[in-house]
Amino acid sequence: MSRIQSRFEQLRAAGRRGLIPFITAGDPSPELTLPLMQALVDGGADIIELGVPFSDPMADGPTIQRASERALAAGMSLRKVLAIVERFRQVDTATPVVLMGYANPIEAMGAEVFVEAAAKAGVDGVLVVDYPPQECVAFARLAKDAGIDPIFLLAPTSIDARIGDVAKAGSGYIYYVSLKGVTGSAKLDLDEVARRIPMIRERVGMPVGVGFGIRDAETAKAVGALADAVVIGSRIIEEIEQAGPADAPARVTAFMRAIREALDSLGENQS
User: Fold this and answer.
1) Neighbours of 228 (CB within 10 A)
2) pLDDT of 113-132, one tens digit each?
3) How far out from the chain centre does Cα 14 lie?
4) What is residue 59's predicted lDDT score, i.e. its pLDDT?
5) More confident residue, 215 or 249
6) Quick check: bond before 156 cis, omega within 30?
7) What's the order of all strands across the beta sheet hosting 125-128?
8) Which of 60, 124, 228, 239 is catalytic?
9) Which residue of 28, 35, 166, 226 lies most exposed, with the fewest beta carbons within 10 A?
10) Structure confidence at residue 182 (pLDDT)
């Protein structure tokens, strides 16, 4: 059982929802990424999604685009992201880390080289936004053989065939995009989430985390009542931007604790 799967088993046994924050590696500086990861854990993160900066982040809104631009300007690369994960593993062997990004950096490194290096660094999952499940069967197998969960996106527009492909290729959890748009969009249709999540969970046989559009404790609690986990990215990056480097870790921990408290207030009866 992978570290991600084990974490969801622990959450299920405790009747709790998972909290999965996203930050971009190297933003606002490479030196601050490790303290920010630790701040996320201090705030109650169950799994960390660590963004690999890319020059054309097609699924991301302006906030995460800015984070990628800052990280790339600071010299971040895929190999440097893996080095950060390796350092994180020296102080935290329990919290799963998922790399989230795009195919180009992986293709440039080579899929086999990347998977081997990611496993060595301590990466637990990888979500490649522009790898459709039906077109990356070999990559998904490589990842699974190395103990890394290949994680895929589903959306309100996903057809049955796509859901079936994700069920076959994926493992760990499903990232359900709660709206038709990019990260950081404000409109969240809870009725649509409530309708889709039970069907997706049944079809894929994996926990479902919901992201895009979750910006505060109230929304996180509403989504947590429907899903196995909530994913928050743009809102955390905004906290980092507003705080400045010196205060960013403490600001992130405080924000996370408010979300964690809201999710834990759901209790065991609403799972």
Assistant:
1) 23
2) 999 999 999 999 999 999 98
3) 21
4) 67
5) 249
6) no
7) 149-150, 125-128, 97-101, 48-51, 18-24, 229-232, 208-211, 174-177, 152-154
8) 60
9) 35
10) 45
Residue of 176, 231, 174, 178 lying closest to 205 (CA atoms): 174
Told to judge if 60 belongs to the known catalytic residues of this protein, a careful annotator would answer: yes
Work out the angle at residue 57's Cα, subtended by the Cα atoms of residues 72 and 82, and round it to the nearest 5 degrees: 50
Picking from 205, 251, 249, 250, the residue whose alpha carbon sits closest to that of residue 228 is 205
pLDDT at position 56 is 79
Of the listed 46, 49, 149, 239, which one is catalytic? 49
Alpha-carbon span 201 to 154, nearest angstrom: 11
CA distance 28 to 133: 32
User: What pLDDT score does 1 carry?
Assistant: 86
Tokens of 117: 């290096």
**pLDDT at residue 186, as a whole number:** 52
Please say if the pLDDT value at position 188 is more than 80: no
d(CA 36, CA 116): 25
